[in-house]
Structures are given as structure tokens and as C-alpha cells.
Amino acid sequence: MLVVQLDLLGDLFSIIGGSIAGIPTLVLMAIPFIIGLIIGWFIKKTLKIAIIAAIIAVILVYFGFFGLSSSGLGGLATQYGGIIIQGAILLFGILPIGIGLIIGAILGFIFG
Questions:
Q1: Confidence of residue 2 (pLDDT cuts 50, 70, 90)
Q2: What tens digit of pLDDT does each residue of 18-64 get?
Q3: Where are the domains of the chain?
Q4: What is the C-alpha to C-alpha distance for residues 91 and 57, in angstroms, rounded to an integer?
Q5: CA dihedral 46, 47, 53, 56 (to 10 degrees)
Q6: Residue 19 is inside which H or E element, if any?
Q7: Model pTM greater than 0.70?
Q8: 101: Cβ–Cβ under 8 A, 6 or more apart, which residues?
Q9: Which of 35, 38, 41, 44 is nearest to 96 (CA)?
Q10: Rounded Cα distance, 99 and 19, in Å
């Protein structure tokens, strides 16, 4: 009888316990998670400020202190849209997209 021993935990710990170019693997796996925590915290703080700014803008438009028109918004989108897209492409090109980043961003948003 042939028995193949499946030592999954041992294999996993040997991978985590190793190093890549002298840097421990656990450190390399923790970096995207920490970046995700920072991004989640930053998104939560920015979202709070954006909601407050939107409420103030709606109040100003309602009372006539500030005017919004579709042509004005279209002009702003034409003027700054390309710059925003270039910034987003640069940001997503730099970020180490992975499950650690996503989990870190979710936890940073919830507990930030």
C-alpha cells in the first residue's frame, strides 16, 4: 500500500519561513496588507469630507449662492478628465493589487 503524506501546513510554513532576496517572505506578504490599511483609512476620511462638501454645495446651490449647469460641468470634465484618468492609471500601476491589499483596505475602512 502506497501512502503519500500530505503535509500542507509544513509546506506552507516552509514557504512563509523562507526569504526572497534576503527579505523574509512574511514581510513581503505584509506590505500590501499595511498599504491596504492606509488606503482604507484614507478613503474613509476622504469620504467623510466629500459628503460634508457635497451637502454644503447642495445648500449653496439651493439658496442661489453658487450655480451649477450641465455645460459648466461638461467643461470641467473636459478640462480635468484626462488628468484624473492619468492619475488613476498611475495609482493602479503602482499599487500591489492582491488579496492582502483588498482585505487591508476593507479593514482600514471599517476600523479607520
A1: low
A2: 777 777 777 778 888 999 999 999 999 999 999 999 999 889 888 88
A3: 24-111
A4: 28
A5: -150
A6: strand 19-20
A7: no
A8: 32, 33, 35, 36, 39, 95
A9: 35
A10: 20
Beta-strand relationship, 23-24 and 19-20: antiparallel
Q: Which amino acid is at 26?
A: L
Burial of 54: CB neighbours in 10 Å, binned 0-12, 13-18, 19+: exposed
CA geometry: angle 41, 42, 43, nearest 5 deg: 90
Please, which residues have CB within 8 angstroms of residue 109's CB and are 6 or more apart in sequence? 40, 41, 43, 44
